[in-house]
Design brief:
3 helices, 164 residues, alpha+beta, globular, 30% helix, Alpha-D-Glucose-1,6-Bisphosphate, Chain A, domain 4
């Protein structure tokens, strides 16, 4: 796996671990920041190994669905899932906006608290990907900070609200 491109995004939040974990695991809060700039609808969220998170992002008359199949969950410490684009029936499918995007990404998110702040470390690696999918992912990695960063800015606002 060491020869595969790995996207990493680390961020320290000025919020306690329990609050940050809740923002990632409470569907009402998650829908507010995941997919910034679009309407995010969480159809199912079963946070346990073998559970799934079915997510739809809508803008105008378009939508994009994805499924996250949880592989490992350690409360307030780690979440690991297979992240896939899907069709409207939640079957794994090519990404409609990027046909060569990997069909499955192995996503790991870890949480660590120190001095009342929480570090979130996110990693994504193509899983069982073709050479074309790996190349597409590697080429897109430089722009991925924008999406995650925009969502994390919304999280900063949410944490300010919750701590007020």
């Amino acid at each position: 796996m060491s020869d595969l491109p790995e996207y990493k995004f680390d961020r320290v939040f000025d919020a306690p671990l329990a609050m940050v974990w809740k923002a990632w695991t409470d569907p009402a809060i998650l829908a507010r920041w995941y997919g910034p700039g679009v309407e995010t609808i969480i159809h199912e969220f079963d946070l346990r190994p073998g559970g799934v998170w079915l997510n739809e992002m809508k803008w105008g008359d378009k939508s994009m669905c994805s499924k996250m199949a949880f592989l490992d969950v350690v409360a307030e410490h780690k979440m690991v899932w297979h992240h896939s684009s899907t069709d409207s029936d939640w079957n794994i499918a090519s990404n409609p906006m990027m046909p060569n995007w990997p069909r499955i990404l192995l996503t790991t998110v870890t949480f660590e608290e120190a001095d009342g702040k929480t570090t979130v470390s996110l990693s994504q690696i193509p899983h069982e990907a073709s050479a074309e999918e790996i190349e597409c992912f590697a080429g897109a990695m430089a722009g991925m900070d924008n999406g995650w960063g925009s969502g994390y800015k919304i999280l900063d606002e949410i944490f300010s609200e919750l701590q007020a």
